[in-house]
């Protein structure tokens, strides 16, 4: 299904085309279809996953930056033709498509922009109750990992503040054209029932990012830029390293910093 030009055209996007039908069906089946009537597939290529989405009782939309793929999809999936958007997901205002309606996101994501796709999803979380798809395995593991893990980091904490993250299954390189050099992993994010933060969101993001920039240091050292009072720095939490803190602990930490009178 994937011709030589297609592979060439997508190479610069870090895209590997899925060629295994059963894996495509398994990815499509990760959607619960609860709480939304639309799904947006990112980077559908030749539509191997798309065709399984089209079988579901939901309205499928696809966003694709490569014009050859867009032409192919419009020609071969006539019932999808007016919902193929030749746009860059990261730089496109999705309310142009969905207004204020909820929608899910799915895809075999290009490796080189996969974390940016997650960050854009977090920005739009009010409209995205569910997100599932395929990443490079280590990125999928990082998103889903818990405190205490070596791969637990900024992406884990920020995603899990708003979504329940579940690593579903591993996909070998052999089901792609061209085959990547690493395994892939499929995950699902389901938005938490209460996904509003009990603290200032900007401060929370800043605390998490600053803490992990020097992940081997204790928070007392890594958060020096916050101009904290000596009284606060004496708190036992500041003797810990960032990977020891759960999402809830990061929220508590942010609350402490927010309440600290020396905070700018």
List strands and helices in order, with pairings:
Layout: H1 4-11, E1 17-18, H2 21-28, E2 38-42, H3 50-53, E3 59-63, H4 67-76, E4 84-85, H5 95-98, E5 104-108, H6 114-123, E6 130-136, H7 137-144, H8 154-162, E7 163-171, E8 176-177, E9 184-191, H9 201-213, H10 219-222, H11 230-233, H12 247-259
Parallel strand pairs: 2-3, 2-5, 3-4, 5-6
Antiparallel strand pairs: 1-8, 6-9, 7-9
Helix pairs in contact: 6-8, 9-12
List descriptors.
264 residues, alpha/beta, Rossmann fold, Helicase, Ruva Protein, domain 3, 2 domains, disordered N terminus
Polypeptide structure, described:
This protein has 264 residues and is α/β, with parallel strands linked by helices. The protein folds into two domains: 188 residues, Rossmann fold (3-Layer(aba) Sandwich), CATH 3.40.50; 59 residues, rRNA adenine dimethylase, C-terminal domain (Helicase, Ruva Protein, domain 3, Orthogonal Bundle), CATH 1.10.8. It is built from twelve helices and nine strands. α6 runs parallel beside α8.
Supply the helix-strand structural class: alpha/beta
CATH architecture of the largest domain: 3-Layer(aba) Sandwich
Question: Strand content of the residues, in percent?
Answer: 15-25%
Query: Roughly how many Å is the radius of gyration?
Result: 20 Å
Which stretches are poorly predicted, pLDDT < 50 over at least 5 residues? 1-13
Strand order of the largest sheet: 4-3-2-5-6-9-7
- Amino-to-carboxy terminus distance: 58 Å
What is CATH's topology name of the largest domain?
Rossmann fold
The helix tally amounts to 12
Name the CATH homologous superfamily of the largest domain. Answer: Vaccinia Virus protein VP39
How many beta strands in the DSSP annotation? 9
Oligomer: single chain
The coarse overall form would be elongated
Mean pLDDT: 93
Helix content: 25-40%
CATH class of the largest domain: Alpha Beta
The H-and-E topology, N to C, reads as HEHEHEHEHEHEHHEEEHHHH
Number of domains: 2
Sheet of most strands: 7 strands, mixed
């Amino acid at each position: 299904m994937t011709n030589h030009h297609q592979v060439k055209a997508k190479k610069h996007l870090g895209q590997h085309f899925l060629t295994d039908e059963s894996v495509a069906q398994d990815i499509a089946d990760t959607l619960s279809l609860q709480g939304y009537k639309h799904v947006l597939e990112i980077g559908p290529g030749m539509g191997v996953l798309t065709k399984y989405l089209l079988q579901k009782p939901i309205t499928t939309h696809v966003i694709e930056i490569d014009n050859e793929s867009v032409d192919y999809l419009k020609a071969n999936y006539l019932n999808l033709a007016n919902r193929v958007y030749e746009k860059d997901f990261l730089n496109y205002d999705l309310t142009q498509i969905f207004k204020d309606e909820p929608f899910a996101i799915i895809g075999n994501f290009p490796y080189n922009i996969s974390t940016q796709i997650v960050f854009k999803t977090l920005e739009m979380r009010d409209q995205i109750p569910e997100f599932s798809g395929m990443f490079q395995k280590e990125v999928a593991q990082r998103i889903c990992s818990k405190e205490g893990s070596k791969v637990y980091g900024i992406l884990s904490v920020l995603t899990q503040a708003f979504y329940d993250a579940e690593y579903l299954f591993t996909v070998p390189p052999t089901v792609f054209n061209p085959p990547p050099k690493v395994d892939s992993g499929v995950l699902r994010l389901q938005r938490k029932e209460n996904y509003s933060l009990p603290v200032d969101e900007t401060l929370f993001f800043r605390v998490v990012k600053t803490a992990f920039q020097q992940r081997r240091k204790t928070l007392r050292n890594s958060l020096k830029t916050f101009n904290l009072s000596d009284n606060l720095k004496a708190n036992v939490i500041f003797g810990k390293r960032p990977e020891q803190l759960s999402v809830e602990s990061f929220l508590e930490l942010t609350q402490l910093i927010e309440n600290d009178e020396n905070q700018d």
